[in-house]
Amino acid sequence: MPKIVNHEERREQLAEAVWRIIRREGLEGVSVRSVAEEAGMSLGSLRHYFDSQSALLAFSMQLVAERIKKRIQSLPQDGDPRENIEALIGQIVPLDEDRLAESQIWIAFSTFALTEPELRPLSREIHDSLRDVFRNIFETLAQSQLLKPGLDTELEAKRFHALVDGLLVHGVIASEVVLAEEIAGIVARHLDSLLVP
Amino acid sequence: MPKIVNHEERREQLAEAVWRIIRREGLEGVSVRSVAEEAGMSLGSLRHYFDSQSALLAFSMQLVAERIKKRIQSLPQDGDPRENIEALIGQIVPLDEDRLAESQIWIAFSTFALTEPELRPLSREIHDSLRDVFRNIFETLAQSQLLKPGLDTELEAKRFHALVDGLLVHGVIASEVVLAEEIAGIVARHLDSLLVP
């Protein structure tokens, strides 16, 4: 009886293999060959799923983005608006090993995309969709009249986005010293500066 | 008559060759071979200066750090404290092509260092020395009584540092849309939120 292979499941297994390689060796270790080996699959079978290294990397980055999106969508929305925002940001910044790995992949992918024209649209798409998350935060806050008066919501969305990505980078490049509590404390301080008491 | 070669000058020429390759192909394009070719030098002569790819990259990153440091040190110190800070931040964030290239090299180097244990000490050193720059800013502001009351200067130094590195990353990965004026505007808004009017 032939083995029934779930196509989507197999793609995800391959993406998991890519992540393990990235965490161990960096993006430069990712090749169609190394991923086939890591996933215990033949080169021919792998090429059936991804015909280039760029396609493989793009898929892995998309999976990271989807995971984060799913976590954000499953957050309860009925609590205190400020706590909702902190919970949302907590899904993006490296507060634990899993989110640290996602952050490393995002940074590595973004860097790789700088010199890979094929990957730039996805890199920009991810940047832009996170920008929209921050715009939504400030629109919701403004509608609920929780923002201090006189704030430029578009500018504040960009400022908060830059702060969060900066914390993400610091969490990755100085992970021994930039601790999770520190990141959470800086986000809390930033929100204090923006919201009415 | 033998050609007199200035050792330091030659090292700088090599670093310039590394920068050109990084901007064109990314860090993955940098090898002892490609740098020798770019600099029009034999492989043997190059190995006289740098015996590994890591040594070459570390030197290039150090040169970027030194350039930024020199620009900061040559800034006038006698003006308005707020303008001094804006001028200082302007030496770090990608406001023009040169500083965009430096930012690209910093991001690429920091990413590369994640999987190259040899490069991690330098990566951390650069992170820590920039952290000190931000600590100094807030100590000076506190001494001049320019800070709004009740601020935690250590936390504010970390927050400003994360914001600036986030702007730097955005300037690099979304350079077509995150414009220099936007970066300057966000820095100005951040300072407004911290300083007494």
TrEMBL record, chains A, B:
| InterPro entries (alphabetical) | BetI_C, Homeodomain-like_sf, HTH-type_TetR-like_transc_reg, HTH_TetR, Tet_transcr_reg_TetR-rel_C_sf
Point out the DNA-binding stretch(es): 31-50
Q: Which Pfam families match?
A: TetR_C_6, TetR_N
Q: Which UniProt keywords apply?
A: DNA-binding, Repressor, Transcription, Transcription regulation
Q: Which parts of the chain span the membrane according to its record?
A: none
Q: Which domain of life is it from?
A: Bacteria
Q: Name one GO molecular function term.
A: transcription cis-regulatory region binding
Instruction: Look up keyword Transcription regulation and say if it applies.
Output: yes
Q: Where is the HTH tetR-type domain?
A: 8-68
**Which named protein is this?**
Transcriptional regulator, TetR family
> Could you tell me which species this protein originates from?
Paenibacillus tianmuensis
